[in-house]
Amino acid sequence: MNICCIGAGYVGGPTMAMIAHKCPDIRVNVVDINAARIAAWNSDELPVYEPGLLEIVKGARGRNLFFSTDVDGGIVGADLIFMCLPTPTKSYGEGAGSAADMTYIEISARRIAELAKGNKIIVEKSTVPVRTAETIRRILDAPGSGATFQVLSNPEFLAEGTAVADLENPDRVLIGAEQTPEGQKALQTLVDIYARWVPRDNIITTRLWSSELSKLTANAFLAQRISSINAMSAVCEASGADVQEVARAIGKDKRIGPYFLHASVGFGGSCFQKDVLNLVYLCEAFNLPEVAEYWRQVVKMNDYQRRRFARKVLHKLFSTVSGKRIAVFGFAFKRDTNDTRESSAIYICRDLLEERAKLAIYDPKVEAAQIFKDLGRKEGDASIEICADQYEAAANADAVLILTEWEQFRSKNMDYAKVYELMRKPAFLFDGRNLTDLSQMRAIGFNAEGIGKGL
Ligand code: NAD
Ligand code: UGA
Question: Is it the case that residue 258 has pLDDT exceeding 90?
Answer without folding.
Answer: yes
